[in-house]
Design goal:
Blueprint lengths: L2 H16 L9 H19 L3 H14 L4 H13 L3 H14 L4 H11 L4 H14 L4 H13 L3 H14 L13
Protein name: Tetratricopeptide repeat protein
Organism: Nocardioides humi
Pfam families: TPR_16 (PF13432), TPR_19 (PF14559)
Length: 177
């Protein structure tokens, strides 16, 4: 499985834990069906069956058009496929359903890094207000700040990211070109 698909599977697994709380205000049968389909889609992603997962998440949206988890995962798939416009639209739709959904905010910030680094930094800060223990967000914020020459704050953010997850010490800074 490619590194990109491993990343998709890992990110989707983070979302899986959130699904336990339910996914919509639809009638109970629709909620149950949507939850089952979401789990199927996550399983498909973890197996590397991206096309099947895409179809499954689209089916979730038939049952629950505002399902933030299906929208988010469709954004992940689009982002992995290099379709930034589609990814951005899916993340924005997930955020319309829940403006404080940290995974969608985080990935939205990654998309913004090349075109509007200041907006990405603001979004990473918002992500960290919601989830202060998200090591990856500390790292991305630190790298962005370092790129802008804000060394002290950057080093503090990078150190916090590594303290939260020592594996982050191996992460390379993204390119901002």
């Amino acid at each position: 499985m490619s590194r990109r698909l491993h990343l998709l599977a890992a990110l989707a697994a983070v979302v899986a834990a959130t699904l336990l709380s339910g996914c919509s205000d639809e009638e109970p049968g629709a909620e149950s069906s949507a939850s089952a389909l979401l789990q199927t889609g996550l399983d498909q992603l973890s197996e590397g069956s991206t096309a099947a997962a895409r179809g499954t998440f689209e089916n979730v949206l038939v049952l629950d058009p505002d399902n933030q988890y299906a929208l988010y995962n469709l954004g992940l798939i689009a982002q992995a496929d290099g379709d930034e416009d589609e990814a951005r639209a899916r993340y924005d739709a997930a955020l319309a359903a829940d403006p404080d959904y940290a995974p969608a905010l985080y990935n939205r910030a990654i998309l913004d890094e090349r075109t509007d680094l200041a907006a990405a930094i603001a979004t990473y800060r918002r992500v960290l207000e919601i989830d202060p223990d998200l090591a990856a967000a500390h790292m991305r914020l630190g790298f962005a700040l370092l790129h802008l020459g804000q060394t002290a704050e950057a080093e503090a953010s990078l150190a916090r990211g590594v303290a939260l997850d020592p594996a982050m010490a191996e992460i390379e800074a993204p390119s901002y070109e």
